[in-house]
TrEMBL record:
Keywords: Cytochrome c-type biogenesis, Membrane, Repeat, TPR repeat, Transmembrane, Transmembrane helix. It is found in: Cell envelope. One of its GO terms (biological process) is cytochrome complex assembly. It comes from Aliivibrio finisterrensis. GO terms for cellular component: cell envelope; plasma membrane. The lineage of its organism: Bacteria, Pseudomonadati, Pseudomonadota, Gammaproteobacteria, Vibrionales. Residues 117-274 form the Cytochrome c-type biogenesis protein H TPR domain. This is C-type cytochrome biogenesis protein CcmI. The gene is ccmI.
Amino acid sequence: MILFWISTLALIFVGVVFIALPLWKAKAQDDDARRDELNKAFYKDRLAELKEEDAEGLVNNQDELITELKQSLLDDIPATEKAQQDSLNARLFILPSIIIFIVISYGLYFKFGSLDKVEKWQEVSARLPELSQQLMNPEGVALSDAEMANLTLALRTKLHHEPNDAMGWFLLGRIGMSNRDIDTSVGAMKKAYELKPTDVDIKLGYAQALMLSGDDAKADQAKQMLKQVLRGDSTNLRALSLLAFSSFERQDYKGAVSAWKAMQMLIGPDDSRYEMLTRSIERAQSKMNPEANIDKQVPITVNLGSNVTLPSQGVVIVSIHPADGSAMPVAAARMPLSRFPLKIMMSDDNNMIEQRKLSDMPNFIVRARIDQDGNVSTKEGDWYGESTVSTLGENVSLEIDKQY
């Protein structure tokens, strides 16, 4: 900001010079110079005429005529006091003009120059190191939306002046992922990767951004990058985790199981993540052979009663409860409000908590409700239905025809 104010003062000084110079330099002096030049030219012309007339004998008193000509030139010169007075009057306008110019200039800037935004921008830029450390610290306090926006602004400002800062681009990519701004994330990570293609953290960040893009070609590129990292370091847990996630999302369940098992071997059974990896492996294996798990699934058909009028908005919540009618569901799914009958397949993937599995229940009931406001705790006015007691693998059909 100091440089900014110095710059404005320099511009003000230039403006003051342009205002003061014409007023300080008395206009009378310019008029006098022009008058003197005209008088000199007139005098010389008239003097030449007199000499010609004298030579032709037309005049007898040449000396008197020359004296009169000189006197007429003297009479044309104004009094010195008047010229000085005109110059003084002009100079009196200098100070008021300068004051008015400065007031208008700074007044317009304070009114339309967004000074508050400039000051905030400078303040945010100064906090860049603090916000960066807070973002990179996994055990630190999460940044608020406003702080994330401030960090993005500060980073973009820094990268504008330092476009070859690879870690700055990497950090901007991380922020893009946090904000679900995939285009910004991919673009920033790509720039960081171009600047430091051998940095493992940048390579993994770029691969993760490519995976989240939803583009098959970019997903293939990410997979190749992850394999390249693992060729250099087969114990990199983050690379294995990203590879497993990518494989699972692309229905390469065998590849996902292989990556998760490799992670289990590295962390050991005493690690708290081991059990989570086991569940992920079981889930992938069930996807590999769905016929073997058909008896642990519940095919459900939800019909709509003829007395029901569908609301303009809402969702259908399908939940499975113990046969005793307990309010707490064992498994649940949220479906968009669309055409009926609604068909859904529920399994352990829909469990509410890990300690209670749908596959462990000998019998149960299924409930379906049209939730109009998105709040599961409010039911008044909602339409619902309930099935009879059913078992795993059995086709369950129910009808929504009652209202709370």
